[in-house]
Here is the input.
Amino acid sequence: EPEVTQTPSHQVTQMGQEVILRCVPISNHLYFYWYRQILGQKVEFLVSFYNNEISEKSEIFDDQFSVERPDGSNFTLKIRSTKLEDSAMYFCASSELGHGTEAFFGQGTRLTVV
Amino acid sequence: DAKTTQPNSMESNEEEPVHLPCNHSTISGTDYIHWYRQLPSQGPEYVIHGLTSNVNNRMASLAIAEDRKSSTLILHRATLRDAAVYYCILESGNTPLVFGKGTRLSVIA
Here is the structure.
């Protein structure tokens, strides 16, 4: 069964450093998403991406965040200058047609900022 | 900001059916009802979704009230592996899925 894969599974970084979280969505999917989940809290929407541009973003997704689909297969989330409060699980998801279709989530990247 | 209401937690005995309720009284005509679950230490996992009619798949059944203001996720035979947080989510247009707190299902052997 096709799946969304995320790398790395765990990333430790120093405060102020840049990190790039990588995702390979399911190959025929057109809609891509990043979510995060701080330990013990809800899954929070960050950004959605369609047709090579951001279609929607939340208040969390400020100027320190960016997304890119550099080569038609990978979908990356960059955090420019990490803060302690960025420590969370980051989940990538993709769906084939957006509205009315299921989203498939990756297993997540645990980001720890020290 | 979640548009659905679910009980915080529920408990079930193994091998018995489980009915997880969800209220969504402000649903509009084009909103899909989605159910996802999150097993411990894993990413959310799609369970089922529907618009107006009841739906069945290999994982579960979705019963949608006639007025669409509530729905019930039915696990026909709970196993220990079904212990998870279950999220009922309304999808409006092309807006992304918004997760609430969900229902934490415990399954007792």
Notes: Chain B touches chain A through 21 residues (CB under 8 Å). Strands of chain B lie at 9-13, 18-23, 32-38, 45-50, 55-56, 61-64, 70-75, 84-91, 103-108. The mean pLDDT of chain B is 94.
